[in-house]
Amino acid sequence: MLELRNISKSYKMGENIVHALHGISLTILEGDYVAIMGPSGSGKSTLMHIMGLLDIPSVGSYKIYGKEVSRFSEDDLAVLRRETIGFIFQQFNLLPRITAYENVTLPLLYSKNRAGNEYARQLLERMGIASRSFHRPNELSGGQQQRVAIARSLINKPKIIFADEPTGNLDSVSEKEILSILKELNDQGITVIIVTHEEEVGLQAKRLIRMRDGEIQSDVRLKPRLSETPVSQQLIHQNISRPFSIVREGFEYFNQGLKTLLANKIRTGLSMLGILIGVAAVIAMLAIGKGAQRAINAQLSSLGSNLLVLRSGARRVGGVAQETGITSRLNYSDAQYLKNQLDIIKDSSANVHGHGQVTFQNKNWSTQINGGNASYLNIHALYPLAGRFFTEVENQKRVRVVVIGRTIVRELFGSINPIGELIKINKVNFQVIGILPEKGATGFYDQDDVVLVPVLTAMYRLLGKEYVDSIDLEITDSKQIDFAHQKIIDIINTRHHVSDKFKQSAFEIRNMADIQEAVSESSKTMSLLLSAIAGISLVVGGIGIMNIMLVSVTERTREIGLRKAMGARRWDILAQFLTESIVVSSVGGLVGIFLGWSASIVISTFSGWTTFISISSVLLSFFFSAAVGVIFGIYPARKASLLHPIEALRHE
Ligand code: ADP
Ligand code: MG
């Protein structure tokens, strides 16, 4: 069954070469119970590791079931190990954070033998520790722990059990129990190979091999071996590649990852922090940005797509801006003139804009002053919440009346009803006749922080302007907008005697589509900026995760060795650690999304800004945080997967 020919193993220790094994030749047959004895450093463990496929010889040939081991890849060896071999160690090597039962079923993760869960219960029963199944290793005595370890080594129904000083850490009562279990296993046909220091343990075996300085000193048969053991020769060929289910494995790794991470709550929490803060900030900022954009768009579209705004333009010659000339300024009368000239203009309003101080009693507020015709009401759909809008007659008479926004009401009047009250705008008395409907704030711009007065009053009594700043033109049919655009330019150019040179640039018209475009353009820049911040914070978060995973790999080196001994392939270890880093990063991402979402709600309730969380920003954040887990988890996971099983097991 096991056939060693001239096996040697040497280690390089700096300059020196340590020869752990010298030309060992040995054959072990099925059903035997072999004890290997010898002083410390004589090569017993090395020999066992080679026979147990955990290590490969430097020189020589080793055949297991007639197959030459040196032809196997590391992963093939892992598969062979988990199908044929069970290990029992002196230090038990149970995983401390999971229960006895979970320790016993651990190898099933790699063998994918689902029928084994019930078998695990039977094994614990057989080992006499069923009542301890749901205790953790540190709640068990040494003898009990070793029995858990034996149950674990049996879970995949191995043909051979290797035990390296299994009683070395046990009291004499426990030692007797463990030895009787091993004998019982051997009676049932399992080949047992045990390394021991103790003479009486060695004498229990059927065959006793003594070693010294890497060589076999003596090899004695003490009892006859069970010869009629029914071991299938086809064993090696079966199960090398079982059907593989990503979902089931993924779930299993996810479970384990979660457990490990929960065992280290503070550390896990801290390593999530970077990702969490980054994602939360991005979600909150995007919510504000998107909210602002939506509010602006909603307002722009409520104004209708048939609003044109005419302004005087910068004069350009060959693309270079010239000084704005007098001829290109808009007059108050231009508004009415355009309306009269063009049938498709439904309404027009001449507008001026300015800033000023408004005062009521002892209160003071700096605000935006807009002037317009009475038609401004319909063009901008500003039906007053209370009171009324000013009339065209009042405009003509330059009456000092004002319609005020909600912010002015709040800042100056508090609970007083403002209608009919007198306020001062830039030290001029005005009577409040109405309150504007609420428009809300978008980002830093508060649209309710405004006072609206008749345009002629504004020009001649308040701002001292001879000209108007813009003219709003409402077109009857939005399909005519391009036609209207050109017509208006022609008419206004003619009226102002604009020379050919400046015909394209003396006046400019903006429509809502242009403004919407400008808004979305600026929000694109904003998004780009946010993405850069998000990118940086995710990288920082990722480095944090990588750091913690590297610590974790070092800390759990023995565990990795153990898992490999139980048949984990490189991919299994890689997947395990990768899952952990993905769990950390995506949980961080999820919490970040939740926090960012809460923050945006808090911000919108306290500031009154519109916020909006888009599904795409949530999905994108989650996707990116998970991706960070993959990218920054790969290196530590790969490092773990490349560890040599024996070196990992020897790690302190
Ligand atoms: P035993 O189990 O009989 O006490 P081992 O098989 O553990 O002995 O070790 C045999 C020899 O090989 C010892 O001299 C030991 O120092 C050496 N040795 C074992 N493993 C390594 C290693 N990874 N690197 C260097 N030397 C090693
Ligand atoms: Mg040893």
Question: Which features does this protein show?
Answer:
single chain; 652 residues; alpha+beta; Rossmann fold; 3 domains; six-stranded mixed β-sheet; six-stranded mixed β-barrel; 21 helices; 24 strands; binds adenosine-5'-diphosphate; binds magnesium ion
Topology:
Blueprint: E1 2-13, E2 16-28, E3 33-37, H1 44-51, E4 59-64, E5 67-68, H2 74-84, E6 85-88, H3 100-105, H4 108-111, H5 116-126, H6 142-154, E7 160-164, H7 172-187, E8 191-196, H8 199-204, E9 207-212, E10 215-221, H9 246-263, H10 265-302, E11 307-312, E12 316-317, E13 320-321, H11 332-341, E14 345-360, E15 363-372, H12 376-379, E16 386-387, H13 392-396, E17 401-404, H14 406-413, E18 422-425, E19 428-435, E20 441-442, E21 445-446, E22 450-454, H15 455-463, E23 470-475, H16 481-495, E24 507-511, H17 512-555, H18 557-565, H19 570-607, H20 615-641, H21 645-650
Parallel strand pairs: 3-8, 3-9, 6-7, 7-8, 15-22, 17-19
Antiparallel strand pairs: 1-2, 1-4, 4-5, 9-10, 11-23, 11-24, 12-13, 14-15, 14-18, 14-23, 16-19, 17-22, 18-19, 20-21
The structure holds adenosine-5'-diphosphate and magnesium ion (MG).
Residues 11, 13, 18, 20, 38, 40-46 line the site of adenosine-5'-diphosphate.
What is the number of independent domains?
Answer: 3
- State the shape: rod-shaped
Topology-level CATH name of the largest domain: Rossmann fold
Radius of gyration: 42 Å
Mean pLDDT equals 86
Within CATH, the superfamily of the largest domain carries the name P-loop containing nucleotide triphosphate hydrolases
Number of helices: 21
- Our estimate of the beta-strand percent is 15-25%
DSSP summary, beta strand count: 24
Q: Roughly how many Å apart are the termini?
A: 34 Å
Briefly note the structural class of the backbone.
alpha+beta
Report low-confidence residues grouped into runs of 5 or more.
Answer: 231-242
Question: What is the share of helical residues?
Answer: 40-55%
**What's the main sheet like?**
6 strands, mixed
| Strand order of the biggest β-sheet | 6-7-8-3-9-10
CATH architecture of the largest domain: 3-Layer(aba) Sandwich
**Which ligands accompany this protein?**
adenosine-5'-diphosphate, magnesium ion
CATH top level of the largest domain is Alpha Beta
